[in-house]
């Protein structure tokens, strides 16, 4: 089993900066593109991968992996392998797992183009570390959010799901608890796209319910946004969702990218903001994020952004720890890449730093109130994390 990769997310959240960067891209040094390697033998396979990582990986200043030592150790091992031998191909697969096991990037994932590895899982170091952790637990079932919470906790509300052409399913639930606490759950960040469709869909109906209550109700005592088990998604949802809850620009962190071939050739840190949207309403009641160990990427960044608000709180578990945004290499000299032998090396394009100056990549963002996963309570229909959020509001 491997971690489900979150959909590609984009730069936090400065579209203007993206355009400026793209305009200046021709002035940046050109990388030695890993796709230019022939990959006719394992010497070339290794060189393409090692060089791609050496140039594109954005976390070298905080990562503990000694990449030069990796070269000295594995270069001669790959040189002994025959790219046309299935046993050697599987041995190379093992070497890739060993070389990347300690990488801090928790988005990191390698998929292979070689047909002999078609039945092999992609290499995902963060997931392997997670399942080896004694505190590891499976994600909460989607039926808990879609069925148990509406039956046991919501006094009113709607629920729905949408299947997209790319064969992804998005689930959402919204309602009120005790008549005056507004609750929203959604399984992935594709809110803006699904809301802006010409026809009604299940998730759009839930979003409309939530936004209508948010805008029209004057008696709300709190808002709960539930991103437990949420694998992330489109950055556009950050402003689309939180930009409706604030009337002032909110800085919650910083991003920086690679600018050249050097491992530590970084751009300056650029501020990351939540920007108010047309018709925004300043929500002054408590806003509580519910997140857990399976909250990844945009789920984590949204939690960080809410936590920056004076009325923002976070209840649950430490998040997954994949905070670095991803975008296309046309904007940056860094991030994901492919080679002739590797289908995709999926790695962050940018480094993210929280407003307090801490980089939470690989370690996860900690809650204000920790409430561990409790399978016995869940089996009984009790949600102790949700109840802790309600107690905080009360």
TrEMBL record:
Domain Tail specific protease: 156-372
UniProt keyword terms in alphabetical order: Cytoplasm, Hydrolase, Protease, Serine protease, Signal
Membrane-spanning parts: none
UniProt signal peptide: 1-25
Entry's localization field: Cytoplasm
Protein family per UniProt: Belongs to the peptidase S41B family.
Protein name: Tail specific protease domain-containing protein
Species: Chitinophaga qingshengii
């Amino acid at each position: 089993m491997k971690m489900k990769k979150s959909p590609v997310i984009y730069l936090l959240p400065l579209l203007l900066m993206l355009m400026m960067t793209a305009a200046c891209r021709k002035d940046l040094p050109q990388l030695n593109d890993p796709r230019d390697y022939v990959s006719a033998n394992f010497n070339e396979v290794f060189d393409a991968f090692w060089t791609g990582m050496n140039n594109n990986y954005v976390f070298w200043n905080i990562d503990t992996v000694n990449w030069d030592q990796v070269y000295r150790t594995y270069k001669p091992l790959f040189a002994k392998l025959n790219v046309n031998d299935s046993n050697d191909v599987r041995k190379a697969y093992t070497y890739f797992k060993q070389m990347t096991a300690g990488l801090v990037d928790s988005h990191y994932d390698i998929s292979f183009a070689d047909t002999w590895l078609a039945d092999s899982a992609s290499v995902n170091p963060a997931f392997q570390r997670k399942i080896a952790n004694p505190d590891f637990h499976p994600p909460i079932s989607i039926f808990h959010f879609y069925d148990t919470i509406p039956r046991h906790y919501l006094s009113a509300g709607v629920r729905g799901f949408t299947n997209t052409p790319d064969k992804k399913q998005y689930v959402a639930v919204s309602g009120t608890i005790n008549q005056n606490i507004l609750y929203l759950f959604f399984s992935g960040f594709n809110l803006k796209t699904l809301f802006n469709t010409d026809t009604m869909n299940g998730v759009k109906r839930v979003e409309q319910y939530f936004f209508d209550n948010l805008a029209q109700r004057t008696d709300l005592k709190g808002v709960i946004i539930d991103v437990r088990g949420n694998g992330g998604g489109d950055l556009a949802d950050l402003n689309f969702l939180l930009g409706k809850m604030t009337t002032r620009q909110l800085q919650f962190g910083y991003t920086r990218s690679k600018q050249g071939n050097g491992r530590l050739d970084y751009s300056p840190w650029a501020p990351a903001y939540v920007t108010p949207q047309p018709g925004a309403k300043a929500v002054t009641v408590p806003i509580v994020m519910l997140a857990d160990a399976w909250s990844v990427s945009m789920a984590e960044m949204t939690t960080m952004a809410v936590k920056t608000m004076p009325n923002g709180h976070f209840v649950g578990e430490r998040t997954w720890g994949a905070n670095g945004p991803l975008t296309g290499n046309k904007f940056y000299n860094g991030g994901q890449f492919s080679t002739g032998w590797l289908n995709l090396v999926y790695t962050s394009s940018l480094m993210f730093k929280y407003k307090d100056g801490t980089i939470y990549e690989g370690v996860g963002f900690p809650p204000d109130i920790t409430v561990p996963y409790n399978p016995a309570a869940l089996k009984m229909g009790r949600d102790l994390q949700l109840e802790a959020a309600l107690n905080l509001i009360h």
